[in-house]
Give the backbone structure.
Amino acid sequence: MYTRGRLAGAIMSITLLGGLGAAALPEAATASEPARNYLVFYTDGGGAAAQRAAEAAGGTIQGRDDKLGYLVVRTSDPEKIGADPSVAGVTLDRPIGKTADAPVPAGAPVPAGTRSAEHARRAPGGDPLSDRQWDMKMIGATPTGSYAKARGSHKVLVGVIDTGIDGKHPDIAPNFNRELSRNFVIDEPTDENGKKLDGPCEYKGCKDPADVDDDGHGTHVASTIGSPINGLGISGVAPDVSLVNLRAGTDSGFFFLKPTMDALEYAADVGVDVVNMSFYVDPWTFNCANNPSDTPKERLEQRGILEGMRRAVKYARAHGVTLVSAIGNEALDLGKVKTDTSSPDFPKGAEKKRSVDNTCLSVPAELDGVISVSAVGPSGRKAPYSDYGVEQTDVAAPGGDMFDGGTGIKGASREILAAAPENVLRAKGLIDAAGKPKTSSVIRDCHDGKCAYYQYMEGTSMAAPHVTGVAALIIGRFGKPGKGGLQMDPAEVERLLYATATSKGCPAPRTYRYGTGETQACEGPTAKNGFFGHGLVDAARAATVAP
């Protein structure tokens, strides 16, 4: 899962963008839209000037955030505000991000049959379903590997910015930090065109509690990071850490820019040590600061997204938050993309075809200070869906590959198994009325009268949490007492993460042909290449490396 995205390796310094010049842009359309809330990002020291510009354009100030440098302005003329030189970008405050399943190639088999783990062999030295976790074996997260040396610590706070975490799931609850968990979104029953988005609200005010996940994506991610070793189900990479839900996605999986920034800012302020970001910010697949094929308003919006996320990432990293993100599932060499046909993808039907270049960025994936993760299958080959790029890929991790025939592992078992909320499985018809799985992609494990559900998924969303877990192990070993429990310089975490990764060179020949006939070219040396970055993340080495 995850959708697209391209991580780390873009611009470290925050260069504030000037306002839109009339001579440089196509003629703007006459403003006739109703007043709506916009995030107005101002240049360094430009807060007062931006406020004057907003008020001169007839806007009203609804709020402000001086940590990240923006105003919340209600206006019907965002372009007039954006023309002021004190304004770096203007973005509509609406759902602009999405998590989604990895694309399934044509002809993919549909998992069928029923498999329950209620009488499954209990894996010696591990949890009941550990024998199904090829991913943990690949990175050395086993009873004889990292678990014997380092399991993390409850003082290590791991934030999951996603669709939520099922904090009541039996294989997450022991490590779930309810006190610090927050939900930064309000569900939207319909989109701006009246089409179903999140559906009817389950809670007052359309705001779910901070221990609810109505999508399942965030729960799966959290489980891979930190499910405990407790005699039930599976074990995470760092089974002793504290999991903090930083929900920024609605029930339908869409993200708003402001809640995403709010989640990063909150993580920094409360002392979260590492954050997993298996999502991308939309509606633009690639955000271009000055694309001639976009309207002035569209350019303003993309500038706002770029500016807002750069500032949020910089703020979080400066406060000790290590940032990990999935690279994306579009099978793209992110350094060579020339066409974008999927933007803007919200609301549905707004997409258009446009030319892009390497100055157009996917966020948070391509922002500097973010660790970008590509996905591999059971044989260790790069998964065909995983994005890549010699400048963009930082490290690789198991993400699953149903079509990887390089091992004896079959079908859905080639994907990643992790916790799933029962309510989501029921809503999707994946378990019957009695609670028995209706597909081999879902496993139920029962022990001592307690049952829990798990689901196989694949994608760079599944790869990133393996890296987040290893980062948590490093922080647990070398972090110093600080806000929230422990603190460690993200640059040092990153250095040790790369130093302990297992180097993995490009395939020979470098242009790899998958079974579908698709080809992808790997560039760069063994030490840092487009398929695997610095190598395959290694929990066992991270658990034993010297400072």
Summary: The first strand starts at residue 36 and ends at 42.
